[in-house]
């Protein structure tokens, strides 16, 4: 492969200090992008003081397992070292010398119709490289010191959250945006921040000053909650022609088209930025239980996403409100009403404990059986109710004593001080922190009922603290013209590495479950119409009406195979599903005419987004 006409060397010293007394490996990474061949990029690792036998692995992300080990080609170790691939993401190397050079190529997968911002890509104007999609690590010593050198095409620059004084887990957590980049910097509380944008066209068609101003607002507002940053510097990596976002310890990748940035009321881009940025505290610094720094096996699961994701959802909305940026709902009360409606719409939210829903969040369908639930939603509502509890327990009437009032902000700050960049949190630790802040027994009851025993949330009790009343009705679901809707509350999916189309049941009381279908059943046809794709399934659903009987040809699953590919494709059944109507929650929250001045004050403070 020809070298680029010009070479940009970008070297990061990733661990400082004097050499250790023992022969700890030193890793020198080189990543080369050749503009004449953008089908992938080349990686070389020179390992000094290499163990006689060691392993290199491609790490698995906790949230998105893209399995980039599938795209490793041309793996080679310099002689006299020998190597073998002992697992899909693991290579074993044996050597008789202290220095070993390993090289391989990441051959990028074909471009997808929708590109997600965290996945590597290359175009003629730039791309995304680095992190665990690119670099292997020594399994026996994940904290080995290392350097990175980038060889890029002429005129290209690079940006990342790499810290000059860190360890391998941080190298593998740092995506690198490269190409013809636009950059802006600002400082908050002495900490540098950078906004970097990779456009797909030479001309920027959005207001860059507004972008800078709004992101600065988000950073300053989040900082006031915690009073300290969990990083030494931070980089916002914005990509045109991409979607989605993913947080990292000192950076975030975000898909942000010019249209998104020009119409934030419609796109919700700043609420998404607030969400991912808040994760630099809640998720990256304050870590949930069950995760290890690096892992090359199956995705690691956690019971703590109700806090990590749910509370982050709450603060994404709240930060946007406090900064005056666009939000999805015009008021906090309207937002809360919509959340509670969703809570009851998917019955699993009120039946399944948050820990169980958390464990199923980043895996394939199946673990929740015939229920649908969201740990993000459960957690956001638990956070709202916990905020009500803390505000009520610490309220004082006298204005002179108002400094003693507390809110969820104080809990987040306390948790950050105790767990930030330290050991993972536990539910009991959050309970203890809540009890210390509110100085009340209600904290234990809250955690016992909703976290440990998984009871449905008693919204009426917590809304009453703010002088609010809730009414929950279950009318028939209707279309915009007022006609009852058929019960099509089912979905279809395919398991990874399997072509069988399966049905997903979201409500065990719906007509599909009553007919005897269960999540994981393989479906081959409905009314003799063959089903091969999810689009086929949706097309059939759109033809169904109340009173129809849909004949579903299926291969039943067992409770142990709903989320696996081990189900035997034998014994096709025809299941008649009698399509019925269904009810849907209608939630109304109003102010109680009998509310006390105390309750009215608490409601005004909460609805305004004020921290006290």
Give the tags:
Pdz3 Domain; 18 helices; single chain; Immunoglobulin-like; 3 domains; 612 residues; six-stranded mixed β-sheet; alpha+beta; five-stranded mixed β-sheet
Please describe the topology of this protein.
Elements: E1 12-13, E2 26-34, E3 37-48, E4 53-57, E5 72-77, E6 82-87, E7 90-94, E8 100-107, E9 121-123, E10 126-130, E11 137-138, E12 146-151, E13 157-160, H1 168-171, E14 175-179, E15 182-188, E16 191-198, H2 208-226, E17 234-239, E18 245-247, E19 251-255, H3 258-262, H4 264-267, H5 269-278, H6 305-308, H7 310-323, H8 332-345, H9 348-351, H10 354-359, H11 375-393, H12 408-419, H13 427-438, H14 442-452, H15 459-464, E20 468-473, E21 490-493, E22 502-505, H16 511-514, E23 522-526, E24 529-530, H17 534-541, E25 549-555, E26 573-578, E27 586-591, H18 597-608
Parallel strand pairs: 2-12, 16-17, 17-19
Antiparallel strand pairs: 1-12, 2-3, 3-8, 4-7, 4-11, 5-8, 6-7, 9-10, 10-14, 13-14, 15-16, 18-19, 20-27, 21-22, 23-24, 23-25, 25-26
Helix pairs in contact: 2-5, 2-7, 5-7, 7-11, 8-11, 12-13, 13-14
């Amino acid at each position: 492969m020809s070298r680029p006409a010009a070479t940009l060397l970008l070297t990061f010293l990733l661990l400082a200090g004097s050499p250790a007394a023992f022969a700890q490996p030193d890793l020198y990474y080189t990543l080369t992008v050749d503009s004449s061949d953008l089908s992938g990029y080349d990686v070389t690792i020179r390992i000094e003081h290499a163990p006689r036998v060691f392993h290199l692995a491609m790490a698995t992300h906790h949230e998105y397992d893209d399995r980039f080990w599938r795209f490793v080609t041309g793996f080679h170790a310099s002689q006299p070292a020998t190597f073998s691939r002992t697992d899909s993401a693991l290579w074993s190397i044996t050597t008789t010398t202290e220095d070993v050079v390993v090289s391989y190529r990441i051959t990028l997968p074909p471009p997808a119709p929708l590109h997600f911002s965290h996945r590597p890509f290359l175009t003629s104007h730039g791309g995304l490289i680095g992190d665990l999609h690119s670099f292997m690590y020594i399994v026996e010593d994940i904290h080995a010191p290392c350097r990175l050198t980038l060889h890029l095409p002429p005129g290209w620059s690079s940006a990342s959250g790499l810290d000059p004084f860190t360890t391998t887990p941080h190298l593998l957590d740092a995506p690198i945006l490269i190409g013809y980049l636009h950059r802006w910097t600002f400082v908050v509380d002495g900490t540098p921040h950078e906004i970097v944008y990779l456009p797909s066209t030479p001309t920027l068609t959005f207001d860059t000053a507004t972008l800078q101003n709004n992101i600065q607002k988000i950073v300053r507002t989040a900082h006031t909650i915690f009073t300290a940053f969990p990083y030494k510097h931070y980089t916002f990596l914005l990509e045109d022609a991409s979607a989605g976002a993913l947080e990292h310890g000192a950076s975030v990748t975000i898909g942000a088209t010019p249209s998104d940035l020009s119409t934030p009321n419609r796109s919700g881009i700043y609420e998404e930025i607030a969400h991912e940025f808040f994760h630099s505290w809640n998720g990256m610094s304050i870590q949930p239980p069950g995760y290890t720094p690096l892992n090359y096996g199956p995705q690691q699961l956690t019971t703590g996403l109700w806090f990590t994701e749910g509370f982050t959802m709450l603060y994404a909305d709240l930060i946007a409100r406090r900064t005056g940026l666009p939000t999805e709902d015009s008021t906090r009360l309207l937002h809360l009403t919509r959340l509670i409606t969703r809570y009851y719409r998917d019955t699993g939210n009120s039946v399944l404990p948050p820990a169980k829903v958390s464990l199923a969040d980043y895996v394939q369908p199946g673990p929740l059986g015939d229920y649908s639930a969201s740990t993000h939603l459960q957690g956001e509502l638990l956070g709202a109710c916990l905020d009500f509890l803390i505000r009520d327990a610490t309220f004082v009437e006298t204005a002179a004593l108002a400094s003693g009032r507390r809110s969820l902000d104080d809990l987040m700050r306390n948790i950050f001080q105790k767990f930030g960049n330290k050991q993972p949190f536990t539910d009991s630790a959050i309970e203890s922190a809540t009890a210390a802040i509110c100085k009340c027994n209600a904290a234990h009851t809250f955690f016992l009922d909703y976290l440990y025993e998984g009871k449905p949330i008693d919204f009426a009790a917590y809304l009453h603290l703010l002088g609010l009343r809730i009414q929950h009705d279950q009318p028939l679901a209707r279309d915009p013209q007022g006609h009852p809707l058929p019960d099509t509350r089912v979905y279809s999916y395919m398991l990874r590495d399997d072509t069988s189309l399966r049905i997903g049941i979201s409500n065990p009381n719906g007509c599909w479950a009553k007919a005897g279908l269960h999540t994981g059943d393989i479906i081959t046809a409905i009314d003799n119409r063959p089903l091969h794709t999810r689009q086929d399934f949706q097309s059939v659903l759109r033809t169904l009406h109340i009173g129809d009987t849909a004949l579903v040809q299926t291969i039943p699953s067992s409770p142990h195979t709903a989320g696996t590919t081990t189900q035997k494709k034998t014994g096709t059944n025809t299941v008649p599903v009698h399509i019925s109507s269904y009810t849907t929650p209608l939630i109304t929250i109003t102010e109680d005419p009998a509310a006390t001045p105390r309750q009215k004050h608490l409601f005004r403070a909460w609805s305004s987004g004020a921290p006290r």
